[in-house]
Amino acid sequence: MPWQVVPMQRRHIAGFRELLDRVARERRYLAFLEAPPMPRVRRFVLNNLRNGAPQLVALDEGAVVGWCDITPKVPVTLQHGGVLGMGVAASHRGIGVGAGLLQEALQAATLRGLTRVELVVRTDNDPAIRLYRRFGFEVEGRLRNYLDIDGHAHDVLAMARVVSGLQDLQDRATSGVCD
């Protein structure tokens, strides 16, 4: 395996922003059409690091080729949940990078006490939907005309994964759900 999954560190921020920008400019996978300015990205990453949020990168020869973060919700009634964000460089799709990132992030989220992880994904992103289903995410609804990209409306699926704790995650891993 030429790539590895590691916790994000300060030194990865520039590479993360660069990859976020590349994936966003593909105009297919993210709500962003370009990465936010570096100060905003830096604040996001540093806040997640300070708060112990699951935040991982995939590295290939030191370059960031993927990321996955789960941002915990703030209101006290929602603190058991977080929102998933992830992306993989076009050059590294289809070789297990996304699965590696997602597995590590979900384990970290469960260890942190998060029992609900949610996301939205475009309905035409079949590889991502298959990946999320493989890791126990279920469709909770369809949001119509959720995104407008270049005058074209796109529906998204609201998906969530709910676990009762670390044992549930370990059971899924041994049953092959998280392979």
Explain the overall architecture.
The protein is of the alpha+beta class and 179 residues long. The protein has a single domain (3-175), classed as Aminopeptidase (3-Layer(aba) Sandwich), CATH 3.40.630. It is 34% helix and 33% strand. The chain has helices at 13-25, 38-51, 97-111, 126-134, 166-175; strands at 3-7, 55-60, 63-72, 81-88, 116-122, 138-149, 152-162. The protein has a seven-stranded mixed beta sheet, with helices on both faces. It is globular and about 40 Å long.
Provide keyphrases for this structure.
alpha+beta, Aminopeptidase, 7-stranded mixed β-sheet
CA distance, first residue to last residue: 15 Å
Strand content: 25-35%
Report the major sheet: 7 strands, mixed
CATH class wording: Alpha Beta
- Please identify which CATH superfamily we are dealing with: Gcn5-related N-acetyltransferase (GNAT)
Helicity range = 25-40%
- Quickly count the helices: 5
Shape: globular
Q: Any idea what the CATH architecture is?
A: 3-Layer(aba) Sandwich
Number of domains: 1
The averaged pLDDT comes out at 92
Q: Strand-and-helix sequence, N→C?
A: EHHEEEHEHEEH
Write the SSE topology.
Blueprint: E1 3-7, H1 13-25, H2 38-51, E2 55-60, E3 63-72, E4 81-88, H3 97-111, E5 116-122, H4 126-134, E6 138-149, E7 152-162, H5 166-175
Parallel strand pairs: 4-5
Antiparallel strand pairs: 1-2, 2-3, 3-4, 5-7, 6-7
